[in-house]
Amino acid sequence: MSFTAVRTDATGTHPVGIRYANGLGPATHMVTVNGAGAYTASLPPTGGWGANGMWNVAFVDLPLIAGENVVTFGKGVNYAEIDFVFIADEL
């Protein structure tokens, strides 16, 4: 799954928040930014799935360029339902 309009004003490493639900055991997703890198997002169990209101937020530090970025999540161990991403240090 890719998020295609992850926008920042400054090039550098940014904490990216991932809102997710995970009704299974510990999960990971592999993450790339603009087609490069190999980062891991750890998504602990939330006790249920998003339909039940069991959301949580995890963070991963990612190198972003100024302007639009494409952040792509791939399968790791188990899986989680990812709802949206946001750049935490720009809130």
From TrEMBL:
It comes from the Bacteria. Residues 2-76 form the Alpha-galactosidase CBM13 domain. Gene3D superfamilies: Galactose-binding domain-like. SUPFAM superfamilies: Galactose-binding domain-like. InterPro entries: CBM13-like, Galactose-bd-like_sf. This is Alpha-galactosidase CBM13 domain-containing protein. The lineage of its organism: Bacteria, Bacillati, Actinomycetota, Actinomycetes, Kitasatosporales.
